[in-house]
Amino acid sequence: MKHSFFAFMRKTGTSLPGFRLTLGATLVWAGFLVAFPLCALLARPWQDGVGAMVAALHDSRMFAALWTSFSSAAIAAACNVPFGLMLAWALARGQLPGRWLADALIDLPLALPTAVSGITLATLYGPNGWLGAPLSRLGITVSYTRAGIVVALMFVGLPFVVRAVEPVLRNLPHDLEEAAVLLGARPWQVVTRVLVPPLLPAVVTGFGLAFARGVGEYGSVIFIAGNQPFRSEIAPLLIVVRLQEFDYAGATAVALILLVISLLVLLLVGSMRRKLALWSEPA
Amino acid sequence: MSVEVNALLRTVPGAQAPLLDNVSLHVPDGMFVALVGPSGAGKTTLLRAIAGLDPYRAGTVSLDGHVMTGVQARAGKIGFVFQNYALFPHMSVARNIAFGLDVLPAATRPPRAQVAARVAELLDLMQIPTLGQAYPSRLSGGQRQRVALARALATGPGVLLLDEPFGALDPIVRRSIRTWLRDLHDRLGLTTILVTHDQEEALEVADRIVVMQNGRIVQDASPQELDCNPATDFVMEFLGEAVSFPGHVQGGMMYAQDEAIQPFSVPAHLADGPATAMIRPYEIGLVPQATDSGPAPVRAVPRGVRGGYRHYAVQVGARSVPFFVAQERDGLALEGRALDISRARLFRDGRACL
For residue range B260-318, what is the model confidence (pLDDT) as tens digits? Predict the structure, then answer.
């Protein structure tokens, strides 16, 4: 590992023009924008002493909030996978009129201020909302519960799945399906054996992006979640609450755990994607 | 397995001319047929229609006398090799080849060991016995081609359809793989239809050549017949380099417009009127000049040697006419009174008239 890193560094100036310059600029840039703030975040919790940090970690409300955040993000991202696949399919393969409009609409949740989407969802799914009223008659409550959090996270996470899968699907040659049919595959076999497996790495990437966004999402969730401690309070909200209480150790403790778990999950997602894409590596 | 195509018509909305215009074709069991023609002639369209991949408006496709309705009806009976091979990228070579057997319903699917044996047998037949575990992205073009062929043959189809299978290969691999393919066809007793835009390839491997143009079959004949009696000026031009001399027929003689062409006699039944003489460069001759009549009006300038022929260029009026002489014919005069094109075929309004 170490050896290959130095070999990589020594390669400067051999084949790629301007390699040293671009590498330097990239490292400085990434350092200031990403690594530096993250390091500060890692260092800050210990400033008030290890004792304060340990005390802050003894907080069941915090663990409830973290559990809510991570589980809701995972469920929302998992629900987005089938919907995102179908949407990407329709966009890439369907010849629907007005496809360009649907194409633009998919990215809209990214552009919308999250508070706006949050209030919209809360109104729609509220006890008297257009969707909330019929659902409550069926005995389903969405707003002010964990289900509401999942709905909000699905809303903001969908573009990530669609945009991760769509280009791969578009590049998948149409004759793969034709070849499969001519070899006797029935329609469901074409989907499960020929179309979905090459898409899996992209699906996992989309899941990872939607999950990461879901863990950090704040604005769109707090309006629909109800924010009851131990029940529907998400970790990012708890950070704000702690800050308002001037409990900086508590706030940074939540942030630290959020950061570490997110990093671990994203590493896991990355290794899974690589494992699924082994076939695509050229010799 | 014989293939019968009957009055196939395929149109696309918005386009004036149909893609396939009443195409009929009969391919007897065990024959190797090549579909040739320029781009857009409808070769691939016809092949895809035979495979059932594209819908057609009218006409029928039958295999061994049974009319085929959908693509499912043809599954397993037809092996199709796509132009870019369409190998499943996420499956190993062995899984690719076994695909046609793996998707069979559980009741008819052969046991695992039998599938593995069939894959090994096909890998041997394709001369790639060690590649079973490799993924398609790691194979060379020629290897992918063989895997695609093995996959198409796994279910034991009677008909093999090949869509420009040699397009992406380098010339040396191309040559070796096409003789090997012909050999495979004979050994397995297949009925093969090959689409190619390379007429030389077609002449080399096929028993019969079907020339297509604008969605129609222009001529369907053996390579020999095609070379001797091309039906139209297009076929003549398509099968190899040809030089044309416009002119007219009068009283059983063909007179070319160019002065430097010696008039030649044609069968008496040919009516007088305009006609075009077309000839291959190696069929052209020089009419010797009388020794005492000054500088010769026609002289051949050397243009190199290729494929056993010495190439020359002859200035006729404003244009330069290619003229090939076999290597072994030494001491040939390179000047003359006129060009002798008496071995030319005659065409009138684009159709052969001789």
Answer: 888 888 887 888 888 999 999 888 888 887 776 677 778 888 888 888 888 888 888 78
- B78: closest CA of chain A, how far (Å): 7
Determine contact, residues B124/B150, Cβ cutoff 8 Å: no
> Does one domain contain both A137 and A20?
no
Q: Return the amino acid letter for A94.
A: G
Q: How many distinct structural domains can be found in chain A?
A: 2
Of A173, A193, A278, the CB nearest to B86: A173
Contacts of A100 (CB under 8 A, 6+ apart): none
Q: What is the DSSP string of B82-136?
A: -TT----TTS-HHHHHHHHHHTS-TTTPPPHHHHHHHHHHHHHHTT-TT-TT--G
What is the CATH topology of the domain spanning B3-230?
A: Rossmann fold (3.40.50)
Nearest to B86 among A176, A186, A281 (CB): A176
Tell me the whole-structure pTM to 2 decimals.
0.79
Domain with CATH 3.40.50.300 in chain B: 3-230
Same domain, A183 and A265: yes
Chain B residues in contact with A184 (beta carbon < 8 A)? 72, 75-76, 100, 103-104, 155
Tell which of A169, A183, A281 to mutate to test the B interface (max B CBs under 10 Å).
A183
Closest CA of chain A from B37, distance in Å: 23
Residue A122 within any structural domain of the chain: yes
